[in-house]
Amino acid sequence: MLDKYLNKITQGDCLELFKDIPDNSVDVTFADPPFNLKKNYSSYKDSREFQEYLDWCEKWISEMVRVTKPTGSILVHNIPKWLTYYATFLNKHAHFKHWIAWDAPTAPMGKSLQPAHYGILFYTKEQKGSKIYELRYPHKRDRKQGYLWKDYGGKKDLLHPFGPLVSDVWTDIHRIKHNSKRDPHPCQLPIHLMDRLILLTTDEGDIVLDPFSGTGTTAISAKRLGRQFIGFELDSKYVEISEEKLEHTLSNFKIGESWVSFYLNEIITIKDKDWENLSKYFLIPNPIKNIDFHRIELLNKDLIPKEIENFQNGKTNQQDKFYKIESKKTTEIENLDSAIILTKNKINQAL
């Protein structure tokens, strides 16, 4: 039965489709569900009553745990408000590992604390024996000077050449803010966020299931990192966009024998255990303390995967068709949001 859904985005209600997925059959389940904040989805009303929404969430969360293998992980993305409720459901069936804070600052409004992160709940099916890998990301640098942000107490000769280990606070991955980079979806995640989660919890060939596939970000990340995927999506338009994008996606995000995450022609996430293999592909400053002034570089830029041009630089045909329909509506909403922000600021200034 699993083969029917493998490496496909299937249109339909996830609670119905979950019934066909056997127990303990996928390596990772990831969900980025509707936030119940009246977002403008194409064919879904994002405004359930409070208890109705929570009851619905508990059902698909229970299904995620059921289908995940004993060595697997359950990952759920949302705003902190809802994650606190999700955690009460997950605590009944799985084991808490981390609350990952994904940095997403907003423009300040009013006098209260402003939300500045999304959360990702990270649970495992069993207490022990789960696949969890240490990851590394590049050293942060001053944009103008190029120097390292931190002085590391003068011990830069002890630095890892590629960068520090990834913690549970991710400030190096940012929201997709410009319409030219977005699909016509109100809550699209950056694909390198999914890359990091997949590298964190899976091996080559593992199966990643996303019950709210949207425009296919999880599936595309899984495919380009050599994993298999299962996607469920209620909206047929999003399924069409996903399918066309997947046609232009290659399983080629690797250097040598190691799968890595790229963004803007730079490697931004690697598995720590792969560095021994990867290091031979880099020009590394010698002595290592000179990394303060000279970042490591790939010896050969041809190692960077070449995406198909119309997928890398523009929208696919299905995106264009749908985007023309939605763009006017989106612009109107953005203009309204801007007007509300300006009005609030004026009120605050007057107080």
Q: Roughly how many Å apart are the termini?
A: 63 Å
Query: How many separate helices?
Result: 9
Hey, roughly how much beta strand do the residues contain?
15-25%
Sum up the overall morphology in one term.
globular
Within CATH, the superfamily carries the name Vaccinia Virus protein VP39
CATH class: Alpha Beta
Question: How would you write the strand order of the largest sheet?
Answer: 1-9-8-2-3-5-4-7
How would you spell out the order of helices and strands?
EHEHEHEEEEHEHEHEEEEHEEHH
Contiguous low-pLDDT stretches (5 residues minimum) are 178-186, 308-316, 318-351
How would a textbook summarize the main sheet? 8 strands, mixed
The CATH topology assignment is Rossmann fold
Helix content: 25-40%
| Number of beta-strand segments | 15
Decide which structural class fits the backbone.
alpha/beta
Mean pLDDT over the residues = 81
Give the number of domains: 1
Rg over alpha carbons: 21 Å
CATH architecture: 3-Layer(aba) Sandwich
